[in-house]
Design a protein that fits this description.
The complex is a heterodimer of chains A (255) and B (299). With 255 residues, chain A is an all-alpha fold. Chain A folds into two domains: 35 residues; 209 residues, Orthogonal Bundle (Cytochrome Bc1 Complex, Chain D, domain 2), CATH 1.10.760.10. Chain A has 15 helices and no strands. In chain A, helix 4 packs across helix 11, helix 4 crosses helix 13 and helix 6 crosses helix 13. Chain A is elongated and about 80 Å long. Chain B has 299 residues and is mainly α. Chain B folds into three domains: 47 residues, no CATH class; 117 residues, Cytochrome Bc1 Complex, Chain D, domain 2; 82 residues, Orthogonal Bundle (Cytochrome Bc1 Complex, Chain D, domain 2), CATH 1.10.760.10. Chain B is built from ten helices and four strands; from the N terminus they run E-E-H-E-E-H-H-H-H-H-H-H-H-H. In chain B, a hairpin with a 2-residue loop joins strand 3 and strand 4. Chain B is elongated. Classes of the chains: A mainly alpha (255), B mainly alpha (299).
Chain lengths: 255, 299
């Protein structure tokens, strides 16, 4: 039976090689093929904003510190998750995430809807020493974020790289990335008007870390955490639950 | 060409390969494994037929059961909402007094309150409402915006200095760094404020200089502080100005902390919960935070 066939294949190297290619192609096809139709399968969110340079810098630090190892950014379509964290994640919400930070393990809670749930001060104190605000926390302290001045010099290149993989950053955004990053954490700066003009009135311009004199890595991380789940309102609109439940989107998320 | 033969010890065939008299057994795969493997394959084929499975360009095979995780979830949410309306509706419609008089509703309130508080509020205000530096204590009897349940409900909905359009706004101006008050005036104000508070201040020794300073502080207090904190320092719940005469300090009552508060100002931030918590949840939380001080008058 099947083993006799396998015996024959094993004895013919060309047939064996073709067989291996055919079998592994199935796995590749299932993963890769949906990407060719991603424009049709991911829902559209016209209100989708891009990350500001400061938020992008915070995202880079989030990756650098390995936050994704313990925190997911993906609320699944399960009742207990929706009850606890809020509306489930949509594919389009990760549209400008390169790479996506959905994560695969929750030692800490999911962060997909953490934006503006707590105050900047809480985030700052929590990152400096989690035990100060949550006595039972097992999260490590990241106190150096408050000490390190934010390195803004590579942000321009960072935005450019993002624009090359499809994030709609305009030339002015790329050229002024460094100044925009500083302006977002310095409300008194003259550059704030330009920042708002480029990134929209919903942009949060605040002293995120409580120190108006410097722009620290803490400013960037808190700015990033406060935007999580707030780039688009699509997940919150009841309409999208009813009508956008078109079957295509599920597959796109599964890819 | 090699020849397979039956091994006389194991009863299985050999592969027919032989190296210096050593032959290789060709033990067949155990039948149970083949059976399990076949069952798994059959299950997979059945699953492909019944459930959404294979991608096909910009669509996919839907499966004969028509199962959709999102629709399933929406259905679950509707069902649980329907189950809960028997108590969420009365909690949303009745006022606080009417809820308090209803033992069945209060049982729900007592049951849900701690979990809601722990999930949403304890991060800042502490597990028992103890608060902490920068985050107000909730298990005492002083309330920045008043002890009226409706005031607390309002704070929960719109937050304080939050992004909500109707947010409560509480701002302690930066008297020092804006140049309104000199460092000396602030020093004397600190002494005066400490003198009206019931907090024990150890370092201050009663000297004539101190007494003069306190008087100078009192004059400055009447001019700059009394507008919000009241002439007697008891605060004003209309603008969320804290009571200065008790022994509780959000930002610390020592000279260093008070000087910092007067110099750079303060504006605490309480997020708005209207979009995250339903009205019934916010009402339950109002009951819960009012019960934290253990005074017993669970409203």
């Amino acid at each position: 039976m099947i083993f006799t066939l396998h015996n024959k294949i094993e004895r013919n190297s060309i047939v064996l090689a073709l067989g291996i290619i055919a079998v592994s192609a199935i796995g590749g096809l299932v993963e890769i093929a949906p990407l060719f139709t991603i424009d049709d399968t991911v829902e559209h969110a016209p209100d989708m904003r891009v990350y500001t340079p400061l938020e992008l810098a915070g995202r880079n630090i989030y990756i650098r510190e390995g936050c994704y190892a313990c925190h997911s950014q993906m609320i699944r379509t399960l009742k207990d998750e929706v009850d606890r964290y809020g509306p489930y994640s949509r594919a389009v919400e990760s549209q400008y995430d390169h790479p996506m930070l959905w994560g695969s393990k929750r030692t800490g809670p999911d962060l997909a809807r953490i934006g503006e749930k707590y105050s900047d001060l809480w985030h700052t104190r929590h990152l400096v020493n989690p035990r100060d605000v949550v006595p039972q926390s097992i999260m490590p302290a990241y106190s150096w974020l408050l000490e390190n001045e934010l390195n803004t010099t590579d942000l321009r290149g960072n935005l450019k790289a993002m624009s090359r993989v499809g994030v709609p950053y305009e030339d002015s955004m790329i050229n002024l990335a460094n100044r925009d990053a500083v302006a977002q954490a310095t409300p008194s700066s003259d550059d704030v008007a330009g920042l708002i003009a480029r990134y929209g009135p919903a942009t949060s311009v605040r002293v995120f870390d409580g120190d108006s004199q410097r722009v620290t890595e803490m400013d960037a991380v808190v700015a990033y955490l406060q935007i999580l789940g707030r780039l688009t309102e699509i997940a919150h609109s009841e309409q999208s639950v009813q009508t956008d439940t078109n079957d295509n989107t599920i597959k796109a998320e599964g890819s | 060409m090699s020849v397979s033969e039956r091994d006389k010890y194991s009863g299985h065939m050999t592969t027919g390969h032989e190296w210096n008299g050593i032959k290789e057994l060709n033990t067949p795969v155990p039948k149970i494994l083949i059976a399990c493997l076949s069952a798994a394959f059959l299950f997979a084929i059945g699953y492909w037929v019944l459930m959404p499975a294979w991608p096909l360009g910009d669509t996919f095979t839907k499966g004969t059961l028509g199962f959709d995780q999102r629709k399933h979830l929406a259905q679950q949410m509707i069902e649980s909402d329907n189950n809960q309306t028997r108590w969420t509706d009365p909690i949303e419609q009745l006022d606080f007094d009417a809820i308090r008089d209803n033992p069945q509703l209060m049982a729900i309130v007592r049951e849900s309150g701690p979990a809601l508080f722990e999930d949403n509020c304890a991060m800042c205000h502490g597990n028992n409402g103890d608060g902490g530096k920068y985050f107000p204590k909730l298990n005492d009897t002083s309330w920045l915006w008043g002890a009226d349940p409706n005031a607390i409900l309002e704070t929960l909905a719109v937050g304080i200095n939050s992004a909500h359009p109707d947010t409560r706004i509480a701002l302690m101006p930066a008297f020092g760094s804006s140049g309104v008050l000199s460092a000396e005036t602030i020093d004397s104000l600190v002494l005066y404020i400490q003198s009206i508070s019931t907090t024990e201040t150890s370092s201050t020794t009663e000297t004539t200089t101190t007494a003069e300073n306190i008087n100078a502080g009192q004059a400055a207090y009447s001019m700059y502080c009394a507008g919000c904190h009241a002439q007697d320092g008891s605060g004003n719940i209309e603008v969320g100005a804290p009571n200065l005469t008790d022994d509780y300090w959000i930002y610390g009552g020592d000279s260093v902390a008070l000087t910092a508060t007067l110099t750079d100002g303060r504006s605490g931030h309480m997020p708005a919960w209207e979009s995250r918590l339903s009205l019934s949840e916010r009402k339950i939380l109002t009951f819960y935070v009012l019960s934290l001080n253990g005074v017993g008058d669970n409203p």
